[in-house]
């Protein structure tokens, strides 16, 4: 597995926390998962605002190629995923140069959000189920030098670590990073603010992904 991947996110989500803000975080996630295009466009604009004015200023680049991370099951032909819609919206806001939807799920894995603790897919299981379709990337001028994986939510980071490993195999010279709109805060009683931009890292440690922060 790839040793580490730098990542950023701007919102937090509390799956079980009490209080109004925690409830709002669950509504935010529900709208995101529902693939509400107006919602996605609105929050892509928020990402651009944070990229201009917060600790994320140096993280994003207009030369990044945005690569959406696929859902937990193979996607039917013609269906556009939440993460691809998010990537397209980000490019419209000047975050990245183009969208490369090359990552595909070869077979389904259990959803981490609904799988019981201990039954969630491992990094290796995610890795085995993912593949990169190398279509339309033939000329040297089209080979991406910077790739940013785009996901809607990050929990431990297993999916992103596995995806980064697959992408590194195909594009060994590319700089790889990851962005998730929302990061899960499952080990605390609740959240007091939804907008909490953060820079961090997903590391391969002791056979698993370790997200910090």
What descriptive keywords fit this protein?
seven-stranded mixed β-sheet; alpha/beta; single chain; Rossmann fold; 213 residues
Lay out the secondary structure.
Blueprint: E1 4-13, H1 20-33, H2 37-53, E2 65-68, H3 82-92, E3 98-99, E4 103-105, H4 123-129, E5 130-132, E6 146-154, H5 158-170, E7 175-184, E8 195-205, E9 208-212
Parallel strand pairs: 1-7, 2-3, 2-6, 6-7
Antiparallel strand pairs: 1-8, 4-5, 8-9
Helix pairs in contact: 2-3, 4-5
What this model shows, in words?
- There is one protein chain.
- By secondary structure, the protein is an alpha/beta fold.
- It has one domain: Rossmann fold (3-Layer(aba) Sandwich), CATH 3.40.50.
- About 30% of the residues lie in helices and about 25% in strands.
- It has 5 helices and 9 strands; from the N terminus they run βααβαββαββαβββ.
- It has helices spanning about 20-35, 35-55, 80-90, 125-130, 160-170; strands at about 5-15, 65-70, 100, 105, 130, 145-155, 175-185, 195-205, 210.
- Strands 3-2-6-7-1-8-9 form a 7-stranded mixed β-sheet, with helices on both faces. Strands 4-5 form a two-stranded antiparallel sheet.
- Strand 8 (about 195-205) and strand 9 (about 210) form a beta hairpin.
- Helix 2 (about 35-55) packs across helix 3 (about 80-90) and helix 4 packs across helix 5 (about 160-170).
- The protein is globular, with a radius of gyration of 16 Å.
- The protein starts with a strand and ends with a strand.
- The model has no long low-confidence stretch (mean pLDDT about 90).
């Amino acid at each position: 597995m790839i040793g580490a991947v730098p990542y950023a996110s701007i919102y937090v989500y509390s799956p079980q926390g009490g209080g109004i803000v925690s409830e709002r975080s669950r509504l935010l996630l529900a709208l995101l998962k529902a693939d509400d295009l107006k919602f996605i466009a609105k929050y892509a604009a928020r990402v651009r605002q944070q990229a201009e004015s917060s600790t994320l200023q140096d993280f994003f680049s207009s030369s990044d190629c945005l690569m959406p991370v696929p859902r937990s099951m193979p996607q039917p032909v013609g269906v556009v995923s939440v993460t691809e819609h998010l990537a397209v919206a980000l490019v419209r806001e000047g975050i990245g140069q183009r969208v490369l939807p090359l990552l595909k799920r070869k077979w389904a894995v259990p959803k981490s959000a609904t799988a019981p603790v201990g039954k969630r897919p491992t990094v290796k299981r995610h890795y085995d189920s993912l593949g990169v379709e190398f279509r339309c990337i033939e000329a040297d001028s089209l080979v991406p030098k910077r790739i940013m994986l785009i996901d809607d939510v990050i929990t431990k980071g297993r999916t992103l670590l596995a995806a980064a490993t697959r992408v590194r195999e195909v594009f060994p010279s590319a700089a790889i990073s990851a962005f998730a709109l929302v990061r899960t805060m499952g080990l605390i009683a609740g959240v007091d603010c939804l907008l909490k931009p953060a820079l961090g890292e997903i590391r391969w440690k002791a056979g698993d992904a370790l997200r910090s922060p």
